[in-house]
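Thread amino acids onto this structure.
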């Protein structure tokens, strides 16, 4: 016979109790910030300066780079929050704006990836049958994920 226990872990918030864990996550976020900011800036600059790279797919890649760059630029605020021992040290509106930027850019990234997949499929096959098969399933899943992310998370 199984013993049932009353666990409230499903409703508890996850908190980093160990400050060393916070430092490790902060270092990882700093590395992502540096590499992401440099890489996405180079992608945007390359497509902007080179006429050979100006295609419809590459403009979608620029859109993806812009949303990822904004996401990377919001990571230092998360590092500040992680390393603060007394909670969020900045005004509350910065926390809300940072959350909004991350969620909007996440939705934009997912939708841009879906558009790139559709663009590549339709130009590669010459038909509009891209909504059928594995690519169609991928596009639908990405669309549902973007809808879920943008509608189920609170900003404040």
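Threaded sequence (156 positions):
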């Amino acid at each position: 016979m199984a013993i049932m226990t009353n666990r409230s872990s499903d409703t508890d918030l996850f908190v980093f109790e160990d400050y060393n864990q916070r430092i490790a996550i902060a270092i990882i976020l700093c590395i992502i910030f540096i590499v992401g900011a440099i890489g996405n800036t180079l992608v945007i600059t390359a497509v902007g300066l080179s006429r050979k790279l100006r295609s419809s797919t590459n403009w979608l890649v620029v859109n993806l780079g812009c949303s990822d760059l904004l996401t990377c630029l919001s990571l230092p605020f998360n590092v500040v929050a992680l390393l603060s021992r007394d909670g969020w040290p900045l005004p509350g509106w910065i926390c809300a704006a940072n959350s909004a930027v991350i969620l909007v850019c996440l939705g934009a990234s997912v939708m841009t990836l879906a558009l790139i997949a559709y663009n590549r499929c339709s130009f590669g096959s010459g038909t509009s049958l891209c909504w059928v098969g594995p690519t169609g399933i991928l596009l639908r899943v990405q669309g549902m994920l973007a809808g879920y992310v943008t509608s189920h998370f609170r900003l404040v």
